[in-house]
Amino acid sequence: MNQAEVTKLMSQLRFAVRPNKRNLKNPDGPEGRLMKLRKTVTALVKHERIELFYQRADEARGYAELLISDAIRHGDRHKATMELADFWLLEKQLVHKLFKVLVPRFENSNVSFTRMYKAPRDYPGIYYDKAVLELRGNPYPSLLPDFSQNRNYIHNILLDEARKDYRREKLAEMATKLASETTETPKAAEPKAETKSD
């Protein structure tokens, strides 16, 4: 398929396909935008959970992932990795946290190091997409509710029924045991009654 055929296909779409552009304008230009991203990555490493605008969180997430993956791959003796950590982390004590805390936490991880959720909107007011960006394994409570105890899940229903069956069996065993004991005790009591009457 040559280029002309591809353009024919694209022109037949009902809606325009545009690249996803982030609206990250800054009065200080690209340098100010980069400084905001550096502050965001620094805050993420420091606090491990931050709330901010969705677009900035989405872009800062990629830089945080890159920083942590390079730290895991090359270690603290690699000059380029140390320069990268020195650039992105504005507070220099966080470089130690990166290599001593985050690298051991994520070195055997096979999923992303960060997690991003959409945050609820402020009402009333102007709606801006907000997000919560966090590092996995942080010490804070989970943002997602725990649905593992939901009684309507099939495995919980099956476990409840198995518990009920087990209790029924145990109660039936206890009832037969009590019934057998009560039938045995009158027979044993009759001879004793005879001995008393003699």
Automatic annotation (TrEMBL):
GO terms for cellular component: mitochondrial large ribosomal subunit. The keyword Electron transport does not apply. Residues 177-198 are annotated as: Disordered. Gene3D superfamilies: Ribosomal protein L17. Keywords: Ribonucleoprotein, Ribosomal protein. Pfam families: Ribosomal_L17. Residues 187-198 have a biased composition (Basic and acidic residues). It comes from the Eukaryota. GO terms for molecular function: structural constituent of ribosome. GO terms for biological process: translation. Belongs to the bacterial ribosomal protein bL17 family. PANTHER family: LARGE RIBOSOMAL SUBUNIT PROTEIN BL17M (PTHR14413:SF16), RIBOSOMAL PROTEIN L17 (PTHR14413). This is Large ribosomal subunit protein bL17m. It comes from Musca domestica.
